[in-house]
């Protein structure tokens, strides 16, 4: 027995250096491949980006590219704070499910239970429909009159009043149609149930709880350390982003964060620090329409596939910024990319990096 154990120990002892060398080569090759992808996409003197790749909850790649501010010639840094646009919807969905776990609402209930004055035109619109973009409610961002309110600091009620009387686009559950109005209503429902503003609810129950210290409800007026300034393309020129009121995008897209904080967010979800495993299964389900067709969307996440693995994904786009996050549960790989020009989307390159990550041994 001792002889067998000694031989096994000897084999492991001699294999370990080569195994470690192999892991190191893989990590170096992965880094070079990712560098190549991102250096080609984000030039040193143009608006930039921050990317993080994490394996088993820990960062294995974390770099910044380009400029955080073109006017002031400020380089991007990995602590930069970005507007994340529709990645906000993940936080809104989790906030709703936190209230579900507290017994304060049920996703199968009609929205009129919480918003009694909302006109549903005789249709049964549920919380589930709002979460899955299947409500049929008119998306207010597609309305021609949207620019009339773009710079107004509306209350949540005033924002809901802006679109609530619009005709339905389809019967609830009939089709999937990405819908910012639904997530505005979810934010408003959070306020009605909790007695807190959406901003305060997210800050207290999510950001503070899990240590997302550099995340917040967006503001153009407050001084925000390490802010990445937004840019847009105008013809051949790069210009500063157009200003809008964050009250108008509200719970559908008004949060700011960093790549590091978004990794904290993903890790908190993995560890069930915000919602239970049972609730996560409910959130990360490929839901179906009334006719049984799958929509590949859960609650706040697209449910897709990357390189043969199931993935949870969501991007965001708002004047001056684009964002993208991809998580592959089977490999415990998380990739997030944040950019400060809406002219240079991180969506495809984030997915490309996720493919690379599944092909390398990352430790």
Task: Describe the secondary structure blueprint for this structure.
Elements: H1 2-41, E1 49-55, E2 58-65, E3 67-69, E4 74-75, E5 82-83, H2 88-101, H3 127-131, H4 156-163, H5 180-194, H6 198-210, E6 216-217, E7 231-234, E8 237-240, H7 246-253, E9 255-257, H8 259-270, H9 277-283, E10 302-306, E11 309-318, E12 321-328, E13 333-339, H10 347-359
Antiparallel strand pairs: 1-2, 1-13, 3-4, 5-9, 6-9, 7-8, 10-11, 11-12, 12-13
Helix pairs in contact: 1-10, 2-5, 4-5, 5-7
Overview of this structure, please?
This is Serine hydrolase. Residues 1-21 form the signal peptide. With 363 residues, this protein is of the alpha+beta class. The chain has a single domain (28-359), classed as DD-peptidase/beta-lactamase superfamily (Beta-lactamase, 3-Layer(aba) Sandwich). Helix content is 37%, strand content 18%. The chain contains 10 helices and 13 strands. The protein has helices spanning 2-41, 88-101, 127-131, 156-163, 180-194, 198-210, 246-253, 259-270, 277-283, 347-359; strands at residues 49-55, 58-65, 67-69, 74-75, 82-83, 216-217, 231-234, 237-240, 255-257, 302-306, 309-318, 321-328, 333-339. A 6-stranded antiparallel beta sheet has the order 2-1-13-12-11-10, sandwiched between helices. Strands 5-9-6 form a 3-stranded antiparallel beta sheet. A two-stranded antiparallel ribbon has the order 3-4. Strand 1 and strand 2 form a beta hairpin. Helix 2 (88-101) packs parallel to helix 5 (180-194). The radius of gyration is 22 Å and the shape is globular. Mean pLDDT is 93; it is low at 1-23.
